[in-house]
Amino acid sequence: MKEINFKSLIITLVVGVAIWFIPVPDGVKPNAWHLLAIFVATIVGIISKAATMGTMAIIGITLCATTQVLAPGDPTKSILNALSGFGNSTIWLIGLAFFIARGFIKTGLGTRIAYSFIKIFGKSPLGLAYGLNTADLILAPAIPSNTARAGGVIFPIMKSIAVNMGSVPEKAETHRKIGAFLTLSSYNANMITSVMFLTATASNPMAQKFARDLGVTITWGSWAIAALVPGLVCFLLVPIFLYKVFPPELKETKEAPAIAAKQLKEMGPMTVKEWLMVATFFILLVLWIFGNLFSIDATTGALIGLCILLLCGVLTWEDVKSEKGAWDTIVWFSSLVMMGSFLNSLGFIGWFGHLIGGQMAHLSWQLAFPVIILVYSYCHYMFASATAQVAAMYSVFLAVGIAVGVPGTMLAIFLGACASLMGSLTHYGHGPAPIFFGSTYVDLKDWWKQGFFMSVLFLLIWFLVGGLWWKVIGLW
Q1: What is the CA radius of gyration of the chain?
Q2: Which end of the chain has fewer CB atoms at under 10 Å, N or C?
Q3: Alpha-carbon span 270 to 286, nearest angstrom
C-alpha cells in the first residue's frame, strides 16, 4: 500500500467521474467522451502520483475494457481493443532499445566513452562540460531512456569529477566551484540530446505515433535531420551561456584529464564484448537511418540488434528479463498510446482540434504557430515528464495547428521536442531532473531561474535557427 497515495487517488476518481457525467457536447460520441474521462483521470493520477505509472496504466486499461467504451456492447472486442497498445510497433521499439542500452552499461562502454572525452577536453570547466555532453550525445541514439543515460553513465562521472575538483555536496560553500555549473550543463545537455534522435527518449516515439494518427509521417531519419541544426546550436551554446550567467569559480581543471586517464587505465583495454557493442551500435544506426532502402522499419532493426547481442553473449536472456525499466515502459506506454489512439479514431481529437482551431481561424498560420508552441511549452510547469505532457496534450495541439494551416511535419517535430526541452524549467520536469537536483549542487531558486532562461534560449534557437533550417529542407 506504500505505492498508493489515497488523497491523490480520490482526487483522480472525482476528476474522472465529473468528466464522465458532464453532458456530452454536440458532435462527440458518448463513448468517446467517456474514454476522455478515463484518459484524463489516468493522466491526473500519473501527475499527482496517486499510484505508480504502471499501476495507473493497468487501471486505465481495465476501465476501458469493463466500461466497453472502445466497443459498446461487445465485451470480447472491448478487451482486445483495450490491449491493442501492446501490439504497437513503436512501443516495442522503445522496449527493445532499453534492452540494447543495457549493453552499453553492462560492458562499461558508456563509461569508457565518457572518460575518453574528459581526458581529451577536460582541462577547463567548459571543456569538461563539452566532454560530458558529447558522451551523452553519442549515447543518445541507442539509449532511449535519458534517465538511464543520466543516472547510469553521465551523472556518476560528473559528480566524481566535481568532488575531485573540490565541490563537495555536503559543503554548500563549495557548490559553485564547479559542481553547480556541471550539474546544470549536464542536465540541460541531456534535454537537448533527448530531442535530437527519435530513439533518445520515450516521449519521441509517442509523439511520432500520435502524429501518424493525424496523417503526419515521421521517420527516424526525418526527425534526426529536422532536429540536427537547432539541436547542435543548442548543444554548442548551452555550456557557453551557463558559463556567462552561472559561472564556476574554478577556471582551470587540469587534474580532470589525469583522473579520467587513471580510470581508463583501471578499465584496461577494450574487451571483445565492448567491440561487439560498438559494431552492433553502428549496425543499428545504419538500419535506423537507411532501413527504408531495405524495407526494414526501426522496430525490426532494433530486433536485429538485440538478436546480435544475445547471440554474441553481450547480453543474456536474464539481462532482458531483469530490465525492469523496459517492461514498465511497455506497460504504461501501451495504455496511454491505446487511449490516445482511440480518442483520435473515435473522433474526439478532430472535434476538439476544429473547436479550438475555429477560435484561431482569424490568425494566419505564421501567427498561430508561435502561439501554439508557447502555450504548449509553458504548460510543462504542470508536468513531471515529457511523456505525460505528450499523452495529455500533443494530439490536440497538433490537430489545432493542422486545422489552421501550420505545416504538419514541422509542427509535429517541434511539439515533440518542446516536451523534452521544457524539462529545463523545473526540478521535476523530466526523469533525469531529480537525479541532478538531488546532488544538492544547485538550489531550488537557481534551478528555476536558470531553467526559465534556458527555456527562452531553447525556444529562440528552435524558432529562428530551426525555422531557417526547416525552410532549407522544405518543411514549410
Answers
A1: 23
A2: N
A3: 23
